[in-house]
Each structure stands twice: as structure tokens, then as C-alpha cells.
Amino acid sequence: MTYSAEDIQRRVTELGPWFHNLQLGGIPTAPQHFLGDYPTVKWNAFEHVIPKDLSGASVLDIGCNGGFYSIEMKRRGAERVVAVDADSDYLQQARFAADVLNLNIEFHTLSVYHVAQLKEKFDLVIFMGVFYHLRYPLLALDLIAEHVVKDKLLFQSMQRGPSFSQTLQHDYPFEETKIFEQPGYPALYFIEHSYSHDPTNWWIPNPACTEALLRSAGFRIDAHPEPEVYLCTKL
Fold this sequence. Notes:
By secondary structure, the chain is an alpha/beta fold. The chain has a single domain, classed as Rossmann fold, CATH 3.40.50. The chain is built from 6 helices and 11 strands. The longest helix has 13 residues, at 88-100. The model has no long low-confidence stretch (mean pLDDT 97).
């Protein structure tokens, strides 16, 4: 189907508000985004760690939102892109964007806790902007590792706290308590009520915690191209 600029603008308005600022036939979907041209400004900082040519690859985008990363993977030639989100409004946006851009992306309404229902493992799994919105984040990461990652995981989380890690022993005696006061010790901050006016922000790790969680779930960190982004290999 071919859309006129008027059709696109009307539908973008109907489906709003958008969190992903996409360019659909020259129409921006979130031109007033508080983070600027988001997620393009973030993608520009780490897109080099993803192969330019994804021919033959399968990709799963968990928490696809408006579909930005699914679209970028399809533009790089991924043979199959599956995008899931628990929010039906975001999925409507993503479906519309893919339709306007004439891209074949498969969409499902699905919680991260139910990824096993896909009964498939993917060459690349994108898990960005979701972790800190979860009540049970490590469970989600374990389920992703067990059920859907064949090779690579692209992970992103909001992070707060000290920006450095420290070398830790594999074990400490019961009497050791000072280690927990060190700024580079892994910490996961719990948000009881709301953060940034968003009551779905539940857990925010510091960078040391992000790295420890990824290792604990069975991933090797291969690249850290942007402060919040990690490219990992499943071990």
C-alpha cells in the first residue's frame, strides 16, 4: 500500500504519542522527543558493532516499541526479523511503520517472561530499554539466555551510580562487610514508587552490576561501545 504524506501524518497523530522518532515518508513520529532524535542519536554511537550485512540472519527484538531497531536490522538485510512487545499500542505503531516502509517484519504481542513460546533461537537478540522496566529482571535475562539466544545478545539498560567496576574475589568471608560499601561493587537500585515520572522504572543497575548480571546469565561481553550498551556472546 502506498501512503500519501497526509495519510502518514494523520495516522502518526492517531497512534501517538510515540517514543521512537521514526522518519516515515519524511514525517517524524516524535519530533519533540526529550532525548532529541531518539533512538537515532543512540544508535549512531554503537551501530558499528552490528554487521552491515545481516544476510541470512534471524533477529528477535524484545520490547520493540515503535520498531526502530527491527527496522534497522531489516535494512541491513536480516532474513527474518521477529519483534515482540507486551504493549499493543507500541505494536500498532511498529506495524504501521513497517507497512509504510514496506518491510517484512513479524510482530507478536508477547511478554519477555514468555519468550519460550516462540520455540525458536535467533542469531541476534535485541534486548534494549526493557530491563529496568521489569519487576523480575534477572528472571527475564535467564529466560532469554535459555530459550531464544543462539549466538549474540545486544543489551541496553538505563544505569545510575558509579561508572566504574572493580576487581572482586570469587568469595568473601561472612565477616566481610566493607566490600559492599565500595563504589565499584555491583548494585541494583530499587525504585519503590516512580523515577522520571514513570512508575514502571523498577530496577536500575550500576555498570558493574550490568556486567555481573550478563556474566551470571551466561554471556561474554564482547563490546561496550556506548555507556549503556553491551554486545554479548552466549557461552
